[in-house]
Design a protein that fits this description.
single chain; 597 residues; alpha/beta; FAD/NAD(P)-binding domain; Recoverin, domain 1; 9-stranded mixed beta sheet; 28 strands; 33% helix; 21% strand; binds flavin-adenine dinucleotide; membrane; peroxisome; FAD; flavoprotein; transit peptide
Length: 597
């Protein structure tokens, strides 16, 4: 029994319990909602009871890592919160690759949104719907119900907001490669994982049919993964274990014909990780017989072939395949492309926010998680304002004492300074102001100051699109919302170098804890804080302790209400298999009450 099966058994090793009818009584929290069929634009307007007019209306789009983390600790005494998402559950994505091979059940990695709301005394309203348009000029969003596709009904409605929190994640990026949408599988959602699992089994079934040539069998059993990032690599590793531990026993005739190939455009797989992890993974894959094709770009995919161009030689190669899983990078959702056009960000690839997660060019709108990127301000853009603010006596010289007075604010406002100091092994910030021979100086001119800090911005890094970043941003933003009033009178942020006073809050700062990649065969690699890595079999226990803790939290929700033994029982949700795309009208989960009726 491998580690993942063991883990799965722990999660499900309980007798099945009685079903639970979940009653979500939204009105109990004092919020009333109704649909007004006479609304303008032929759409319903969901209005809130005027009971507590002082409360600001917050609309949250998305129930992924960022959205749910924001909701967890938001102070509901100050806000009326409405959540819109086409999925009525939160998915624990790090375990999604394991769902493709059945080592983890899909139902084990979801938490119903209703459950999350219930923990907040039901005071949050949830609409299972997709946001179709953001209208920042009128501070409203237009949504469409995801519950039932019925052309005769008008399922559109609009929600007004005082504050909008956009956490809609990203969609797959095909880089406009022909054939990808039609012939590739993606691995973003629960039902993608289930579809992949079914197709892998179908490939084996086809390969053992009578009358097949050996070549045809090999083609059916060639599993190609495009993208050597963590998702592609974890899927390849899980698939390898699934094939070699389970499927070859069921289909012994074709066991020697199976091939797994990972295609990567860069020179190495996992190239966003430490080099040690990347080469550890490549060696592990070599031992396992997983082929890694680096330095090539996919130019076309058809139902039987994938065409790649070798970067070094320019040669085109056609590779026959049974299934292609496409896992290369993230793209912006059409909803946000339209929004970006409206707010003057139309020429950007991804929605930009400032360091406080406020969308640039738009009032009272925040964006977090995979759908946005922080546009970190360069220190060189503000260098003369910083000098001016620090040079209190206006002497034209900055003394060490004057510099020390603003150092903390500089470090908080421009995180690249700290990274630069580390890279230069400087122990004191004032080391920055030493002369070219390394001697201390009592004071510096603006020119010296500019020169001293001129390389700092080279250390600016954009944050990775990970669950850790999204969750930390959600928690950060809810804290800012909770202390919004206090921030106005008693600001806690750094000095404003280009204006008076201080910023209300500290800017968002990401703290890296640990990033795992499961490489199959009980081997896990982890990137730890402080440029440390951990690799091998022992690392799986670290993996287990981090992920099991999160999963236990999910399961505990079930135990709290009695006989319920799984998340799915608790929520009354059912994962349906569907061939439709994940977002629009993707009916994955339903209320138990619906299916029971
Ligand atoms: C297979 C896989 C494995 C991963 N493994 C790891 C890992 O091990 N570690 C790690 O740190 N990260 C991992 N990630 C990355 C991580 O899942 C993402 O970074 C994270 O999900 C981003 O969170 P988010 O809230 O921004 O977006 P998501 O979690 O994608 O949530 C987006 C939400 O918005 C909703 N939505 C979409 N469109 C609309 C709309 N129009 N209106 C309203 N709502 C909408 C969606 O239904 C969803 O609820 C993995 C990702 C995948 C796909």
């Amino acid at each position: 029994m491998n580690f993942f099966s063991y883990f799965n058994r722990i999660l499900h090793g309980h007798p099945s319990g009685s079903k639970l009818l979940v009653l979500c009584s939204l009105s109990s929290g004092g919020l009333l909602a109704y649909a007004d069929s006479h609304s303008d634009d032929n759409k319903s307007i969901i209005e809130q009871s005027p009971k507590e007019p002082q409360k600001k209306k917050v609309v949250v789009l998305g129930t992924g890592w960022a959205g749910t983390s924001f909701l967890k600790d938001l102070d509901l005494k100050s806000y009326d919160v409405q959540v819109v998402s086409p999925r009525n559950y939160f998915a624990f994505t790090p375990l999604l690759p394991s769902v493709t091979c059945g080592t983890v059940e899909a139902r084990s990695i979801v938490e119903p949104v209703r459950n999350i709301i219930k923990k907040r005394s039901g005071e949050i309203q949830f609409w299972e719907a997709e946001c179709l348009k953001i209208d920042p000029a009128n501070k409203k969003v237009i949504c469409c119900s995801n519950v039932e596709e019925n052309a005769a009904r008008n399922d559109k409605f609009s929600l007004e907001y005082d504050y909008l929190v956009i956490a809609v994640g990203a969609q797959v990026n095909t880089f406009n490669t022909p054939g990808v949408f039609e012939h590739c599988h993606f691995l973003k959602e629960i039902e993608d994982a289930q579809r992949i699992r079914r197709t892998v089994i179908d490939c084996f079934e086809k390969a053992v049919l009578p009358g097949m040539t050996e070549e045809e069998r090999k083609t059916n059993l060639h599993f190609v993964i495009v993208g050597g990032g963590p998702t592609g690599v974890e899927f390849a590793a899980d698939l390898h274990d699934f094939v070699h531990e389970d499927l070859v026993k069921i289909y012994p005739l074709v066991k020697d014909l199976v091939k797994i190939t990972v295609i990567q455009s860069g020179d190495h797989i996992l190239n966003m990780f430490d080099k040690r992890i990347s080469s550890f993974a490549e060696q592990k894959f070599q031992r396992d017989g997983i082929e890694v094709l680096t330095g090539c770009r996919v130019i076309r995919v058809s139902d039987k072939l994938i065409n790649v161009k070798m970067k070094s030689t320019g040669e085109d190669i056609s590779i026959p395949h049974g299934i292609v899983v496409w896992s290369t990078g993230l793209g912006t959702r059409p909803l946000l492309r339209d929004f970006m056009q409206q707010i003057g960000q139309g020429n950007r690839r991804i929605l930009a926010t400032d360091e406080w997660l406020r969308v640039e060019g738009c009032e009272d709108v925040y964006a977090l998680g995979d759908c946005a990127t922080i546009d970190q301000r360069k220190i060189m853009e503000d260098i003369s304002s910083i000098f001016k603010a620090a040079d209190k006596d206006d002497s034209g010289f900055l003394t060490i004492e004057e510099f020390q007075d603003v150092v903390e604010d500089i470090i908080i406002r421009y995180p690249q300074v700290e990274l630069y100091l580390k890279s230069k092994h400087f122990s004191e910030v004032t080391d920055l102001l030493k002369d070219s021979e390394g001697n201390d100086r009592d004071a510096v001119t603006i020119e010296d100051f500019e020169l001293a800090l001129s390389h700092v911005d080279s250390k600016m890094k954009s944050l990775p699109a990970t669950a850790q970043v999204a969750a930390q941003q959600g928690a950060y933003l809810s804290r800012c919302f909770n202390i919004k009033e206090k921030g106005k009178h008693d600001p806690e942020g750094p000095l404003r170098f280009r204006g008076p006073g201080r910023h209300e809050f500290r800017p968002f700062r990401y703290k890296h804890f640990v990033q795992f990649v499961a490489l199959g065969g009980e081997q896990v690699a982890a990137e730890l804080p402080g440029d440390r890595v951990s690799m091998g079999r022992s690392t799986q226990w670290l993996w287990y302790s981090v992920y099991a803790r999160r999963r236990t939290t999910l399961l505990n929700a079930g135990y709290a209400v009695g006989e319920v033994k799984t998340i799915q029982d608790l929520a009354g949700v059912k994962i349906q298999e569907t061939s439709k795309p994940a977002i629009k009208s993707d009916k994955v989960l339903h209320q138990l009450s619906d299916t029971n009726n």
